[in-house]
Amino acid sequence: MRDIVFTRSGSGWIPKVIREDGELKLMLAAGADANHEPRTFTFPIGEAHLAVIREDLARHLLLWSAVLPLCDAAGTQGRLDENAAGALLDPVLLSAPADVDALFRRIQWERTRLAAHGADIDLLERGQVCAAMRAATEGSNEERAQEYHANRRRAERGTVLGPLDAEILRYTGQYLHGSTIPKRMPDAVDPALLPQVMRVIATAEQACAGMRIGLDPRRGTRATDKRDWDRMATTVDAAVRRAYPELVDDAVRTVSFLMCSEAVDRSRNTPAEDDEAAADDDADLGESARKTALSFTDDKGGEKKWLRGGPRTASAEFWEFVADRSAANNEVFTIEDEEMGEGIQLHFYADSIARITTVRHGEAGSDPQYRVEYRLVDGIGGYRNLVSAFVRGGCAALEQHGPWMSDVAEFERARRQRDAR
């Protein structure tokens, strides 16, 4: 039989006092079980403890803060150490304030809960927990708790935010959670500092004007080119640090993260055909050199045909094929012009490409002969250029994109030397 003896109305999470089978107990929810549901813990208390819990909100909250680490230690299935929990009752609830402060300098305790319930942050950080809780409230302010937790994490890394640093992080929405995708939130910024924040943002925008971050279909339909990202981030970081050397790393990084994220969004919203349309045509090859029919295949039996005159360019169709089928065990893709007897094979696992030309067609049951030449490739941008060149002019158009190596041993040496660097 369980009856609730005392509960506070301000928050359902503050521990309750219950009577279970005639015994007073403190009951609190904390941690989670294997199914991610909150666990409930209880341990015995006395009438004197109940009296303090009823009358003194600050002591009630301090007891909660002191017991929570014991609940965390119980994990998803373990039992609460009731002896350790019971040993906290008299020191937290019945001792003089100085003794309580001394106790909290020796034990683990949950600071964030106290911050949520109105604790004075400065006093809390100085270890004056009783004084810090004089303005305690039953209701909790979770945003205040999150800010306190975020600032403590930064302090542990040795980072102290200045006023402009903090407002830049608020502008991007990353003040509380650094892993959040940044966005522009001017309404979250102190109006007095908003003009300064916007000047920092303008510096970043000017630094990366004209730069773009392409997609990387080798890693799926929404993956981005890491090299492009790093290049833009480095450019923005350097410009912002040069103009505002007083900004901390967190503020600078959030600005470059914002610029890169917005560039990625623009790429994802740009039709794939624009990638080929933006490429320079090779004037020497002429319109007649363009491919009219191509076959795309992968290493797992996938195949797709493309015919000129359709709604999409060959490059767009090919890279969509790659994005849909590329995987850790599927990293070889081929584009073949059967009529011309030529093609290219992309080896994503080795950052290399082969161009394949038919030297002699098979006749009277004999096998055809091919010339195979290899080249190292510099990232997805290099692959895009080579695919676009082949689509525009076949293997002949790739000649200017050498060097090409026909000796396999020579090529493997070149690849090992590159990888060693």
β content, as a range? 15-25%
Rg over CA atoms, rounded to whole Å, is 33 Å
Helix segment tally: 16
The poorly predicted ranges are: 274-285
General shape: elongated
Query: Helices and strands: which structural class?
Result: alpha+beta
Widest sheet, order of strands = 6-5-7-8-9-10
Distance between the termini: 72 Å
| Portion in helices | 40-55%
Count of beta strands? 10
Element order, helices and strands? Answer: EEEEHHHHHHHHHHHHHEEHEEEEHH
Give the biggest beta sheet: 6 strands, antiparallel
Query: Quick check: average pLDDT?
Result: 91
Protein described:
With 421 residues, the protein is an alpha+beta fold. It has 16 helices and 10 strands. The strands form 2 sheets. Strands 6-5-7-8-9-10 form a 6-stranded antiparallel sheet. Strands 1-2-3-4 form a 4-stranded antiparallel sheet. β7 and β8 form a beta hairpin.
What is the topological layout?
Elements: E1 2-6, E2 16-20, E3 23-32, E4 38-44, H1 47-55, H2 57-74, H3 82-94, H4 97-104, H5 111-116, H6 121-125, H7 129-132, H8 142-156, H9 163-172, H10 194-207, H11 226-243, H12 249-268, H13 273-277, E5 293-298, E6 303-307, H14 314-325, E7 332-337, E8 342-347, E9 352-360, E10 369-376, H15 379-397, H16 408-420
Antiparallel strand pairs: 1-2, 2-3, 3-4, 5-6, 5-7, 7-8, 8-9, 9-10
Helix pairs in contact: 1-3, 2-3, 9-10, 9-12, 10-11, 11-12
Short characterization:
The protein is an alpha+beta fold and 421 residues long. The protein is 45% helix and 16% strand. The model is unreliable at 274-285 (pLDDT under 50).
List keywords for this structure.
elongated; four-stranded antiparallel sheet; 421 residues; 10 strands; alpha+beta; 16% strand; 45% helix
